[in-house]
């Protein structure tokens, strides 16, 4: 069904998302990136069984929805849809993995593995596990969201 408003935006969905698909978005999201944090409009979708999280970004919520929809189309076009797999863990040890056929990330599709001590944790991971410097970077970026470079405006990603 089209025309329903994406949660936390004033944007009516333009793509035929399933009725039970949870959709949310925003005009003022922040993406934390090793190449530099940036501000972006975003739309997120949460397909279930197996569970995943699709996030599209763009200069506007409409562009972000297009980007999110493109990921959803890739997922539903997978020859192994709706089950997906086989899965590969790549850098994940928490049971999450990527479908080797469509490349989509899924949670809880693989056994949980012991932590790799050489792995570099993400900024958000560090912020939520007590790294004060990482937390300061997250909070500073959130407070300063209007001054961050904007996705889609410059090609500095
Ligand atoms: Zn797949």
Please characterize this protein's 3D structure.
Helix content is 22%, strand content 18%. The chain is α+β, with helices and mostly antiparallel strands and 157 residues long. The chain has a domain at 1-77: Double Stranded RNA Binding Domain, CATH 3.30.160. The chain has a three-stranded antiparallel beta sheet. Strands 4-5-6 form a three-stranded antiparallel beta sheet, with no helix packed on it. It is flat. The two termini are 33 Å apart. Bound molecules: zinc ion (ZN).
Number of helices: 3
Each distinct ligand = zinc ion
Give a count of the beta strands, DSSP E runs of length 2 or more.
6
Determine the structural class based on helices, strands and strand pairing. Answer: alpha+beta
- Overall 3D shape: flat
CATH classification class of the domain at 1-77? Alpha Beta
CATH architecture annotation of the domain at 1-77: 2-Layer Sandwich
Strand order of the biggest β-sheet: 1-2-3
CA gyration radius, whole angstroms? 17 Å
Q: Strand percentage, roughly?
A: 15-25%
Compressed to H and E, one letter per element, the order equals EEEHEEEHH
Kindly report the CATH topology of the domain at 1-77.
Double Stranded RNA Binding Domain
Fraction of residues in H or I helices: 10-25%
Distance between the termini: 33 Å
Mean pLDDT: 89
Largest sheet: 3 strands, antiparallel
Give the low-confidence spans: none
Give the topology, please.
Blueprint: E1 23-31, E2 38-45, E3 54-58, H1 61-76, E4 87-88, E5 97-99, E6 105-106, H2 123-128, H3 132-143
Bound molecules: zinc ion.
